[in-house]
Design goal:
mainly alpha
Amino acid sequence: MSPNMREKWRISFPFSDHEHNEDGPINDPNTWKIFFVTVTTELIGTVMWLWFAFAGHLFALDQGRPVPGATMARQNAETVIYIALSYVFSLLATTWAWYKKSGDFFNPAVTLGKFLARKLSWLRALALVPAQILGAMAAAALVDYMFPGRIQFVETRLSSDTSIARGRSVHILRVLSIH
């Protein structure tokens, strides 16, 4: 196999503590075993992260003090902080638990960014994105089944005075600022 072909088919494993043949050819069974473990742990990690986050979000909405005259979109500061912390701490705990096996992406946007920065092979990115989407769907289904309240309350919406273009621009700038 030529060096260019090997680089094209290379499956990179950042943050991995394995001493396996990670740069081996694509027909090496050990490479596929590591690849399968990586995709599986990414799926499980995404389910865990979003299960804790969605459950904390619903709990905060259910237990929070309502603001007089406000809709579900307008919450008091305590509720908003609790929701934010439930996402942050669930990501922190899940990342800490799974980063040595999966690379801890847990988000298709992060996976796409790593792929575009050439830090991730196309094969791995193509496998991780569906695993992450399935993990998010499974977490939402589990939370909807296990907890009172509707999972639709977890949706993020723009306020009525924010345009879609402005919301997308703010989102893009925030995501770029943390990577």
